[in-house]
Amino acid sequence: KAGVTQTPRYLIKTRGQQVTLSCSPISGHRSVSWYQQTPGQGLQFLFEYFSETQRNKGNFPGRFSGRQFSNSRSEMNVSTLELGDSALYLCASSGGTSGPPWETQYFGPGTRLLVL
Amino acid sequence: AQKITQTQPGMFVQEKEAVTLDCTYDTSDPSYGLFWYKQPSSGEMIFLIYQGSYDQQNATEGRYSLNFQKARKSANLVISASQLGDSAMYFCAMKGGSEKLVFGKGTKLTVNP
């Protein structure tokens, strides 16, 4: 089975712009979660989508949004970029069943976003 | 709220030796899962091992084992026979009733030849 794929892998934007990141989950997985990783804050949960609906949400401002399509692919959008949005954005997929037992999430390679 | 603490920012080990990476957690959930991931410099998070809070046996996956001590709320990762390719960041994470995966700050492991 192919793993989780993310595009693009690298991105450079300027403050005020917006950006869209894409994530294709493992075939058959219906849940996609997004995480932001920075040196200062570590790994932080952004949101989770399951069956085209946002099922869970972290503590990020409304500039961060996402969606999921009927084929389970997901996109994440960040509007009005700020310097602090520079980070590695990781998406992870899983089957989507609620625990216990708690499902393993499988991660993609990430998108490195640099905001200048 | 759930919290993961990894107190070792960096660890060094000689090739072929065993190493233990510490992880303690805090949660009020009666049921939870604990995970370890490896993140090489390339950035991808690689799943290593899972332990459910009600599992009677400690989890093992090849050279990885999880030393789970529920009363002490610890879930340490043991890597046996370290290899140069084991050099990476290692993250402990947990998931409980909130269904959110919460990560620790990580431990950077360096394997010396």
Shape of chain A: globular
Strand elements of chain A, count: 11
Shape of chain B: globular
Regarding quaternary structure, how should these chains be classified? heterodimer
The tally of strands of chain B reads 12
How far do the termini of chain B sit from each other? 41 Å
Note the main sheet of chain A. 7 strands, mixed
Going by helix content, strand content and strand pairing, the class of chain B is mainly beta
From the alpha-carbon coordinates, what is the Rg of chain A to the nearest angstrom? 14 Å
Q: Would you tell me the overall average pLDDT of chain A?
A: 95
Mean pLDDT of chain B: 96
**Helices and strands of chain A, in N-to-C order?**
EEEEEEEEEEE
Largest sheet of chain B, in brief, is: 6 strands, mixed
Question: What is the largest interface, and how many residues per chain?
Answer: A-B, 25 and 28 residues
Low-confidence region ranges of chain A: none
The residue ranges of chain B in which pLDDT falls below 50 over 5 or more consecutive positions are none
Termini gap of chain A? 37 Å
Total helical elements of chain B: 0
Amount of beta strand of chain A: over 45%
Q: Helical proportion of chain B?
A: under 10%
Structural description of this entry:
The complex is a heterodimer of chains A (116) and B (113). Chain A has 116 residues and is an all-beta fold. In chain A, 0% of the residues lie in helices and 52% in strands. Chain A has no helices and eleven strands. In chain A, strands 2, 4, 5, 6, 9, 10 and 11 form a seven-stranded mixed sheet that branches. The radius of gyration of chain A is 14 Å and the shape is globular. Chain B is mainly β. Chain B is built from no helices and twelve strands. In chain B, strands 2, 5, 6, 10, 11 and 12 form a six-stranded mixed sheet that branches. In chain B, a hairpin with a 5-residue loop joins strand 10 (88-95) and strand 11 (101-103). Chain B is globular, with a radius of gyration of 13 Å. The A-B interface holds A 33, 35, 42-43, 45, 48, 55-56, 58, 88, 90, 92, 98-102, 104-110, 112 and B 31-33, 35, 37, 42-47, 50, 52-54, 91, 93, 95-96, 98-106.
